[in-house]
Amino acid sequence: MTETSLGFVHRFVPAAAPGRPPLLLLHGTGGDEADLLPLGRTLLPGAALLSPRGAVLENGMPRFFRRLAEGVFDEADIRRRVADLAGFVAGARAAYDLAAPVAVGFSNGANIAAALLLLHPEVLAGAVLLRPMVPLRETPPVDLAGRPVLMLSGAADPIVPAANAGALAERLRADGAAVTHETLPVGHGLSQADVTRAGAWLAGLAAA
Ligand code: MLT
Prior knowledge:
Blueprint: E1 2-3, E2 10-13, E3 23-26, H1 37-43, E4 49-52, E5 56-58, E6 61-63, E7 67-69, E8 72-73, H2 75-96, E9 102-106, H3 108-119, E10 126-130, E11 148-154, H4 162-174, E12 178-184, H5 192-207
Parallel strand pairs: 3-4, 3-9, 9-10, 10-11, 11-12
Antiparallel strand pairs: 1-2, 2-4, 5-6, 7-8
Helix pairs in contact: 2-3
The structure holds D-malate.
């Protein structure tokens, strides 16, 4: 059922299996709170799923922050929206009795997840970033010591240049995150290879 409480339209699916980290599902441009639920169920079966809808509209399409053009971000808006999302996660953890979630973000959702890591490092237990790019040009150092992050980029992605994804991996590593960055032979869209790779990575995380 779609909820409108806690400051974000969202869906929450309680855990069906104990001991798995909750997943914070963050959709891409034009998605909504229902979009990634099937992916979440596939990636880590039985995990609790928390799936907000981005509060910004671009030509009617939900996003998590404003952009000035494709790949050109409104950084002031990112900072504001990231603070809102951090507040939502804190409220949802209290309301639903959740451990710190692992984000699974695609495209715009991956970018807001990366911004969460860089600005509010305490919010996420880890992250799967599918086709992310650098969300903010400059951020002060934060403590992401040992935080597990899987980044999956596309070798034929027309939106994210390889150097940009590489710069994000380096930035997260500089803050201490344990980053695994792989480039798949795909474009910007999600592929079966993403599902296989991210599912195996999350299974390893849940078993650790
Ligand atoms: C963004 O705006 O976050 C990126 O360009 C990815 C996208 O949503 O297309």
